[in-house]
Amino acid sequence: MASHAVTDLRHHFENHDQQKDASTLGMWIFLVTEIMFFGGLFLAYIAYRTAYPDAFGAASNTLNIPLGAVNTAVLICSSLTMAMAVHSAAIGKNKLLITFLIATLVLGGVFLGVKAYEYHDKFVEHHVPGPNFDFKSEDAKHPVDPHNASLYFALYFAMTGLHASHMIIGAVIIVVLIRMAAKNRFTPEWHTPIELFGLYWHFVDIVWIFLFPLLYLIDPKNK
Amino acid sequence: MITATPTQHEPKNYINSDYGIKSWLLTQDHKRIAILYLIVVTAFFFLGGLFAVLIRIELATPAGDLVDSNVYNKLFTMHGIIMVFFFLIPSIPAILGNFLIPLMIGAKDLAFPKINLLSWYIYVAGGVFTLYALMRGGVDTGWTFYTPFSTSYSNSYVIATGLGIFINGFSAILTGLNFIVTIHRMRAPGMTWFRLPLFVWAHYATSMIQVLGTPVIAVTLLLLILERGLHIGIFDPALGGDPVLYQHLFWFYSHPAVYIMILPAMGVVSEIISCFCKKAPFGYSFIAFSSIAIAVFGFLVWGHHLFVSSQSVYAGMVFSMLSYLVAIPSAIKVFNWTSTMYKASVEMSTPMLYAIGFIGLFTIGGLTGLFVAALGIDVHVTDTYFVVAHFHYIMVGGAIMGFLGGIHFWWPKITGRMYADTWSKLSAIIIFVGFNLTFFPQFILGYLGMPRRYHVYPPEFQVFNVLSSAGASILGFGYLLPFCYLLYSLKFGPKAPANPWGAVGLEWQTSSPPISENFEVTPVVTQDAYQYSTREEVKVG
Fold first, then answer.
1. Nearest residue of chain A to residue B213 (CA atoms)
2. What's the CA gap between B151 and A107, in Å, rounded?
3. Which of B274, B336, B470, B500 is the most exposed place for a label (fewest CB within 10 A)?
């Protein structure tokens, strides 16, 4: 494999295989650290949902399920376009690669836009934890403690906020990748950044696949 | 042992290959980055030590005459934060590990040199945040930031310090990630897993903890900052939150963090003992796997910090039992080191003095760890000086003895100079004596019931506190000595040969200091590690 025309072999590696293996393993380990990073929030969610199931259900029912579902579909589509981008790079179709990267960027932007709209709704409804927080249970027969609902919304904003910040960082990286692709930097032999970013993007999607049911769909029969 | 080899002209090495501040601040050479770490880590060590000096002066008398309780709270908090997060955790991995892992496995560099440099800058950035908080007046929560005091009541710079530690955490994560990938993917031909030096095994286990644990403290501090800044209620009982959840999250990282400090020191001790007994360590694979076992068990014992924090008694029993399990791999190491020394011709060099000191102090620290892991005894000694003495025996008696032993062992390799033998042996003994005089009386104080974190105490405790403060002054003097003679050796020490100790191991096969690429040609390994009986046959290339 040492006969590549590519000049991107760093001085401390013996060959391209070693370099690529190292980068890929590094990315997987990074994703493990990300799981632990989100894990702390998931733990807090489990602890408080177990303690206050009614308040969490009632608060969850104020979310906009159709918008959440649309966003889930948008993100899954963006994972598809990202996978297509990796494939395009692997077969050396540079224009296709750029097209799919732009598609991924657009879908990521749509997700963030919908998310911002949902945040705005929550803000208007005084569902942001803090001095202006105001929560009235829709089911008047079974009122829940607004303090506990506030905990739900704190976790909602912390978890979706952390997820959205990963999306924003991802969007910035896509822009860098598009610029690199426009300069014809990627070849079928060397497109490691595209592959590694693909792993990251799929990971961020998977986090949302967990967030959507845990935050939106926990008490649908009372909706 | 000091033998200077005459050289005709200065050969090229990583230190003289390039000059100027830029060649250091923008370097991607793991050896130069290790030196960058050494400088900043040493500065933090003396800063943290300064706080310890003030604490010990205050405690020399029962009355609060040097500082008031507010200032005292800040003193022990800043001492803890700086020593734990900015000295102990980066000390051995980021300096010795950074320098030695590529050399030991026959690689030219770590897998990700740019990320390695980035992690140093992140470390410095985190340190700057913490120093900013310090200069604005410091923090008074204790290094543990327990809620709800840290979130609702403390009137000090919690957020700035929390951010500093949050940022610093990414430095540890990236270093750990770099080490794991390097050990997996950068080994020289023939360097199989069971030919790796035990130092590398210890760092592999350490890196696992850094990668799995540090993100959890990061998100915990993030929640702490949100709670304090925006009052979101996660840790506030008034809103249904649970302050004890903070303790679970905090100790899920911070107990394994103790093993981030001690495991690399154990790796250092394995290397030193093998070298100065001139034989392979007794039970290589047991020492290697005990490092992994400590890392794994370490994640299952955090609850022993919550025996008196409303944790259920049944959870306490399970955590107590799991904590006892950690003693098994720890004891395996101690028994194997002593078995290695048994009937060997032990050379009492400076690194060996530190290594032997480590074994003794770690044994005391580890055994008293069993005391505090026992539910009944822990209720009596919780938050007393017994606990303080216990963890200082591990962190200072263990980790710092290992760090200093390693620095003395590899100093000729790192700098190409030999240090003064008499001075270094003297300082090793002074440190050992000073350490025991400082911390052994604290076991008695704690058992008698003196609580930690108070600046005044009943007069009957004074005799032990005076002993401790006297010991601390000896210990402080002991730490200043290496600082002086090691700096002196940089300029005036005799030139070190490639292998001054007659050690085996790839790092000793290259020149002192090593060339930028580490080896002239990539070494091919044909033997297990520690082949002292046949060391003439070890070849490079």
1. A36
2. 39
3. B470
Q: Which of B2 and B87 is assigned the larger pLDDT?
A: B87
Query: At residue B7, does pLDDT exceed 60?
Result: no
Contact flag A33-B249 (C-beta cutoff 8 Å): no
Inter-chain residue contact A147 with B233, CB threshold 8 Å: yes
CA-based R_g, chain B, Å: 23
Tell me if chain B has a CB within 8 Å of the CB of A145. Answer: yes
How many structural domains are present in chain A? 1
pLDDT at B10 over 90: no
| Integer Cα distance of B247 and B152 in angstroms | 16
- Average pLDDT of chain A is 91
- Residues A18, B107: C-beta atoms closer than 8 Å: no
- What is the distance between the alpha carbons of residues B283 and B194, in angstroms, rounded to a whole number? 12
User: What's the complex ipTM?
Assistant: 0.91
Which residues pair with residue B417 across a beta bridge?
B495
Asked if B223's CB is within 8 angstroms of A37's CB, the reply is no
CATH of the domain at A60: 1.20.120.80
Examine residue A2 and state whether it is found in any structural domain, yes or no.
no
Radius of gyration of the CA atoms of chain A, in A: 21
The nearest alpha carbon in chain A to B212 belongs to A33
List pLDDT tens digits, range B442-478.
Answer: 999 999 999 999 999 999 999 999 999 999 999 999 9
Q: What residue ranges of chain A have pLDDT lower than 70?
A: 1-7, 139-140, 220, 223
Q: What is the pLDDT of residues B496-514, one digit of tens each?
A: 999 999 999 999 999 999 9
What single string gives the DSSP state of each residue in A167-222?
A: HHHHHHHHHHHHHHHHTT---SS--HHHHHHHHHHHHHHHHHHHHHHHHHSSSGGG
Please tell me the total number of residues recorded for chain A in this structure: 223
* Cross-chain Cβ contact B220/A38 below 8 Å: no
Instruction: Indicate the helix (H) or strand (E) that contains B276.
Output: helix B243-277
Residue A211 lies in a domain: yes
Min Cα–Cα distance to chain B from A135, Å: 13
Give every CB contact of residue B223 below 8 A, 6+ residues apart in sequence: A40, A41, A44, A158, B234, B235, B246, B249
Which residues have C-beta within 8 Å of that of residue B219, sequence separation ≥ 6? A37, A38, A39, A40, A41, B249
What secondary structure letter does DSSP report for B410? H
Query: Which residues on B lie below 8 Å from A41 (Cβ)?
Result: 219, 223
Asked whether B206 and B260 are in contact (CB, 8 A), the reply is yes
Q: Where are the domains of chain B?
A: 38-537
Hey, what CATH class is B38-537 in? mainly alpha
Q: Which residues contact B405 (CB under 8 A, 6 or more apart)?
A: B268, B269, B272, B351, B353, B354, B355, B357, B358
Domain extent for A116: 16-222
How do residues B209-236 score in pLDDT, each as one tens digit?
A: 999 999 999 999 999 999 999 888 899 8
Predicted local distance difference test score (pLDDT) of residue A3:
38
Residue of A nearest to B182 (CA): A22
Cα-to-chain-centroid distance, residue B47: 16
Nearest to A39 among B184, B216, B233 (CB): B216
Q: Looking at residue A10, what is its pLDDT? A: 85
Residue A97 lies in a domain: yes
Q: Express each pLDDT in B401-436 by its tens digit.
A: 999 999 999 999 999 999 999 999 999 999 999 999
